[in-house]
Amino acid sequence: QKEVEQNSGPLSVPEGAIASLNCTYSDRGSQSFFWYRQYSGKSPELIMFIYSNGDKEDGRFTAQLNKASQYVSLLIRDSQPSDSATYLCAVNMRGGSQGNLIFGKGTKLSVKP
Amino acid sequence: GAVVSQHPSWVICKSGTSVKIECRSLDFQATTMFWYRQFPKQSLMLMATSNEGSKATYEQGVEKDKFLINHASLTLSTLTVTSAHPEDSSFYICSARETGVQPQHFGDGTRLSIL
């Protein structure tokens, strides 16, 4: 069973703090990893993607990948109330239906002013 | 870049009606398009994957005769919900991908309500 696991939350952080979102996946051979943000009632929006071990930074967002531990995370620095949303981790696993993404159930983030 | 347009945004219609939803990649050629369904407070559920010029691959439990998918060009895929019933009411979202390693980009979704 190919799985992507996320803590459903809600994760509550104060404005200006660092929010840390975590994700684990079952297929050790997975190659590409994505973070999407989904506001309530809206479709997912791509935040970041990462293919190699280590950190990848884009503005206030940092994605971290550790393939040995089968773990990927998203850090949001200087969190803003507008960051409040559900964050979906997605992994492109080997053997998936035509290489489609396997999504986690999402972590709901709440940033308190 | 990587804009995916989905129409219509909202559909309200009577039971038994067929509804067509369009998904277009506006600034890239999408070799693969995906159709998802999401019920309130639940995660995305993949319904089917389509490659341009090929028959769609449906996920287990999704009726291919009820959810007709056409991917006739590299920029357009359509999903037709045939003879829709109230239990088909949901948020339908398409996504498109240029190549196998590129991210999927999502349309804005279509909220379907069957009375």
Textual characterization of the structure:
The complex is a heterodimer of chains A (113) and B (115). Chain A has no helices and eleven strands. In chain A, strands 2, 4, 5, 9, 10 and 11 form a six-stranded mixed β-sheet that branches. A five-stranded antiparallel β-sheet of chain A has the order 1-3-8-7-6, with no helix packed on it. Chain A has 113 residues and is mostly beta strands. In chain A, strand 6 and strand 7 form a beta hairpin. The radius of gyration of chain A is 14 Å and the shape is globular. In chain B, strands 2, 4, 5, 6, 9, 10 and 11 form a seven-stranded mixed β-sheet that branches. Chain B has a four-stranded antiparallel β-sheet with strand order 1-3-8-7, with no helix packed on it. The A-B interface holds A 31-32, 34, 36, 41-46, 49, 51, 88, 90, 92, 97-101, 103-106 and B 2, 6, 32, 34, 43-44, 46, 49, 51, 57, 59, 91, 93, 100-101, 103-109.
The value of Rg of chain B in angstroms is 13 Å
Contiguous helical run count of chain A = 0
> What does the main sheet of chain B amount to?
7 strands, mixed
Helix content of chain A: under 10%
Name the chain pair with the biggest interface and residue counts per chain. A-B, 24 and 22 residues
The fraction of residues in strands of chain B falls at over 45%
Distance between the termini of chain A: 40 Å
Low-confidence stretches of chain B: none
Percent range for helical residues of chain B?
under 10%
Largest sheet of chain A: 6 strands, mixed
Output the structural class of chain A.
Answer: mainly beta
Number of strands of chain A: 11
Q: Beta fraction of the residues of chain A?
A: over 45%
Q: What is the ordering of alpha helices and beta strands of chain B?
A: EEEEEEEEEEE
Rounded to the nearest angstrom, the distance between the terminal CA atoms of chain B is 37 Å
Instruction: Give the overall shape of chain A, derived from the CA principal axes.
Output: globular
Spatial shape of chain B: globular
How are helices and strands ordered from N to C of chain A?
Answer: EEEEEEEEEEE
Unreliable stretches covering 5 or more consecutive residues of chain A: none
- Average predicted local confidence, pLDDT of chain B: 92
